[in-house]
TrEMBL record, chain A:
Keywords noted in UniProt: Oxidoreductase, Pyruvate, Thiamine pyrophosphate
Alphabetized PANTHER family for the sequence: 2-OXOISOVALERATE DEHYDROGENASE SUBUNIT ALPHA, MITOCHONDRIAL
Protein name: 2-oxoisovalerate dehydrogenase subunit alpha
Organism of this sequence: Orlajensenia leifsoniae
Reactions this protein catalyses: N(6)-[(R)-lipoyl]-L-lysyl-[protein] + 3-methyl-2-oxobutanoate + H(+) = N(6)-[(R)-S(8)-2-methylpropanoyldihydrolipoyl]-L-lysyl-[protein] + CO2
From TrEMBL, chain B:
Residue ranges of domain Transketolase-like pyrimidine-binding in the record: 18-193
The protein, known as: 3-methyl-2-oxobutanoate dehydrogenase (2-methylpropanoyl-transferring)
Top-tier EC class: oxidoreductase
One family name in Pfam for this protein: Transketolase_C
């Protein structure tokens, strides 16, 4: 880019064309070796994860419409960005999600019913990261998690848990955020701190076009990928609907982070095909034509075409459909079975150690509740 | 200034006279020596040793891994501390001044305070947030706030405000050991006041204590207002009134038992605090004492606080700050003819 020019364009890394042809573009060249790590079984895993989560996503939205969930946060359209990047993580890595990365959680071992339980209104947070593949809690306050990720990565440096030269052991962090969250001061501060301390960390920005009703153009005049350079870190824009690009670019930057080469920023160009949440109505602010353009670039259709071109068995595709249906129906069944915890659980774990004020309030509450039971008996 | 020396203290080789700033510095150094996971960071805390020199020498002694300067961004400092605590560290962060902590407020309220609850107790936040606070030093605007009410109103946080070098030392050690996050409010105007410190003395968080015996009325104070309460009690004694003084030391958890027992013993209470009085720690104390000690009270609970205005400019701060005369004026209204 020429100095003082208004040309802020950046190349977009793409390996898989929208028609399913494997055709890495120029920007993708350095990432092809990372793609070549993948086996046919990995390609099939990508497809399976994407199809299964989309079916689950639809089932969860149905649960919300039927009054079973207070809210649902759809991920339809962003499956390639999420599946590819999640597959690039290693078991020892830590993942800091935003709140739409259901498949990332699933791939790290999270039971999706834990997400449903929270959105059913029965828990805060809802899971223990260390028991769920180091998949940290969803963060509804935008961009706060970018700083937690940076602090966690600094802890890895402090512990000597990274940059030892052993990729099987060296740890790294990936943090998910979005085009809207990028405007938060916390996001900029996280990028400053990460660059300053050279943390082992990948910032994975899913640019899905919309922050509820506000287009990405309101957040930034330049591609978000360019911002990374301003903060002093390697940055790439990728086709976020190309699962191979998402995998390969994330794998490279995570490997570099693990090896002590510092943080990186990835901007994944994708699209929120559904609403922001089930409380939102995108027809009020979005053009049908825009949506149709992106639906034509659907990440699952693209990967399916690739697999078919390579002669994947129809029985595999059928099996995946069945697995998706089974997964969704199992999640639905178990979500319906989730029961509310005891009422006085709300007093638990506010502090690690007993707090006299809370002890007194809880005792009052229990006696008050018990007084009704006595009155009824 | 009246110093608190009347507490019985066992003879100990660990006793030494020092300023509160030195006591805080000593506590940080001792905690870092005891526990490798204790990290001190913030703005100017490294080579400079902090704008109040409270972290002086820590980088030289423990290295830049343990005590280091950060980029100039309070939300960044706090959010980074959250991530470090998740990863097993015990961060002790410095917010350079009370009002400079506000950019970090979202991280404190939504994450530091709530993470333990959101993970059902599995991911605790053993973070200490040190904040030099309050006025009385002729500071320019945005350098003199008493911001304790914001923090005590947030479930999940512990909040302490020492008034002596001893409590500063012992409470900071307790705070760093605590599995819960602690907002540690250091009264700037008392940084250079000296007192005796016994480094072997433990002071638990949540324990108020009576620092001056008295029979006619109880003055309830914390942090910056403690020396005022003591001076007022001295002055009242000359006028023939015996005032008891309670130093809260911890605001959360609040020590109802000690305060209630004290107020019931005298039947009269005045709460003294530098912060604006409306919807504040002082109003909470007045409400609790009124609810719990009503039958013992000879007069309504009075409060002597800062006005409900922005902290006054340096040359006018004396008109804002509670002082001995205002306390005595309040004491005079406690229905003595009853």
């Amino acid at each position: 880019m020429a100095a003082n020019s208004n040309d802020f364009s950046v190349p977009t890394v793409q390996l898989l064309a929208p028609d399913g042809t494997f055709a890495p573009n120029e920007a993708a060249e350095e990432f092809v070796p990372y793609f070549e790590r993948l086996t046919d079984a990995d390609h099939e895993r990508f497809y399976r994860e994407m199809v299964v989560i989309r079916r689950f996503d639809r089932e969860a939205a149905n649960l919300q419409r039927q009054g079973q969930l207070a809210l649902w946060v759809p991920s339809h359209g962003q499956e390639a960005a999420q599946v590819g990047s999640a597959f690039a993580t290693r078991p020892q890595d830590h993942i800091f999600p935003s709140y739409r990365e259901h498949v990332v959680g699933k791939m790290r071992g999270l039971d999706v019913v834990d997400v449903l339980r929270m959105l059913k209104g029965l828990t805060l947070g809802g899971w223990v990261p260390e028991e769920n593949g180091n998949f940290h809690l969803y963060t509804l306050v935008l961009a706060s998690q970018t700083l937690h990720a940076t602090g966690y990565a600094m802890g890895m440096q402090f512990d000597g848990a990274t940059a030892t030269g052993d990729p099987e052991r060296d740890e790294a962090v990936i943090v998910y955020f979005g085009d809207g969250a990028s405007s938060q001061g916390d996001a900029s501060e996280a990028l400053v701190f990460a660059a300053s301390y050279q943390t082992p960390q990948v910032f994975f920005l899913q640019n899905n076009g919309w922050a509820i009703s506000v287009p990405a153009s309101r957040q930034s005049r330049t591609p978000f990928a360019l911002r990374g350079h301003g903060f002093g870190m390697r940055s790439n824009r990728i086709d976020g609907n190309d699962v191979f690009a998402s995998y390969a670019v994330t794998a490279k930057h995570l490997d570099d982070a693990r090896a002590g080469r510092g943080p990186a920023l990835i901007e994944a160009m994708t699209y929120r095909v559904g609403a922001h949440t089930t409380a939102d109505d995108p027809t009020k602010y979005r053009l049908d034509a825009d949506l149709a353009d992106w639906v034509a670039k659907d990440p699952i259709v693209r990967l399916k075409a690739y697999l078919e071109n390579r002669g994947v068995a129809q029985s595999f595709l059928d099996d995946v459909e069945q697995e998706a249906a089974d997964f969704a129906s199992d999640a639905r069944k178990r979500a319906l079975e989730v029961v509310a915890p005891d009422q006085d659980v709300i007093f638990d774990n506010v502090y690690a150690e007993a707090n006299a004020t809370l002890v007194e309030e809880r005792a009052w509450f229990e006696a008050y509740e018990a007084s009704f039971e006595e009155a009824q008996s | 200034m009246t110093m608190i020396q009347d507490r019985p203290m066992a003879a100990s080789a660990n006793r030494e006279t020092m300023t509160m700033a030195t006591a805080v510095n000593r506590a940080l150094g001792d905690a870092m020596a005891d526990d490798d996971t204790v990290l001190v960071f913030g703005e100017d805390v490294g080579a400079l040793g902090g704008v109040f020199r409270v972290t002086d020498g820590l980088t030289a002694r423990f290295g830049e891994r343990r005590c280091f300067d950060t980029p100039l961004a309070e939300a960044g400092i706090m959010g980074m501390a959250v991530g470090m605590a998740m990863n097993g560290m015990r961060p002790v962060v410095e917010m350079q001044f009370d009002a400079f902590a506000y950019p970090a407020f979202e991280q404190v309220v939504s994450h530091v305070a709530k993470m333990g609850n959101r993970t059902r107790g599995r991911v605790r936040m053993p973070i200490v947030i040190r904040i030099p606070y309050g006025g009385g030093i002729g500071g320019v605007e945005h350098h003199c706030d008493s911001s304790e009410s914001y923090y005590v109103h947030t479930p999940g946080l512990l909040v302490v405000a020492p008034a002596t070098p001893q409590d500063a030392y012992s409470l900071l050690r307790s705070a760093i050991r605590s599995p819960d996050p602690v907002v540690f409010l250091e009264p700037k105007k008392l940084y250079w006041a000296k007192g005796e410190v016994d480094t072997s003395l433990e002071v638990p968080i949540g324990a108020a204590h009576v620092i001056r015996a008295g029979t006619d009325a109880t003055l309830i104070a914390y942090g910056t207002s403690v020396p005022i309460a003591l001076a007022a009690a001295d002055a009242a004694e000359e006028e023939g009134r015996s005032l008891q003084v309670v130093d809260l030391r911890s605001l959360t958890p609040y020590d109802d038992a000690t305060v209630d027992a004290a107020v019931r013993s005298t039947g009269r209470a005045v709460v003294i605090a530098e912060a604006p009085g409306f919807a504040s720690v002082s109003s909470e104390i007045a409400a609790r004492v009124s609810e719990r000690c009503f039958s013992w009270l000879e007069a309504p609970v009075r409060r002597v606080t800062g006005f409900d205005i922005p902290f006054a400019p340096p040359k006018l701060e004396r008109y804002y700050l509670p002082d001995v005369d205002r306390v005595l004026d309040a004491v005079d209204t406690l229905n003595w003819d009853a």
